[in-house]
Amino acid sequence: ADNKSVSWSSSDAGVASVDASGKVLALKAGTAIITATTQDGGKTATCTVVVEKRKGNGNIGDVEGEKL
């Protein structure tokens, strides 16, 4: 493919958001599907992200997902 660009999206940005580079940020407990779509050819890959509330102080931190 000539165009190596990938766009990223989240099925529930309130649970986990994803930026233009594919970095996932966990926001609250729940499940979201992260989708990567190639600009050249429209191929897609998905990854299910499950965010669990931390035991203890209850904070949910920054999580970096696998590259698709």
Topology:
Blueprint: E1 6-10, E2 16-18, E3 24-26, E4 30-38, E5 44-51
Antiparallel strand pairs: 1-4, 2-3, 4-5
Features of this protein?
68 residues; mainly beta; 5 strands; 0% helix; elongated
Quick structural gist:
This protein has 68 residues and is an all-beta fold. It is built from no helices and five strands.
Description of the structure:
The mean pLDDT is 85. This protein has a domain of 46 residues. It is mainly β and 68 residues long. The strands form 2 sheets. A 3-stranded antiparallel beta sheet has the order 1-4-5, with no helix packed on it.
- Number of helices, counting only DSSP H or I runs of 4 residues or more: 0
Widest sheet: strand order? 1-4-5
Range of strand content: 35-45%
- Count of individual beta strands: 5
Secondary-structure-based class equals: mainly beta
Shape label: elongated
Order of helices and strands: EEEEE
**CA(first)-CA(last) distance:** 16 Å
State the helicity in percent bands: under 10%
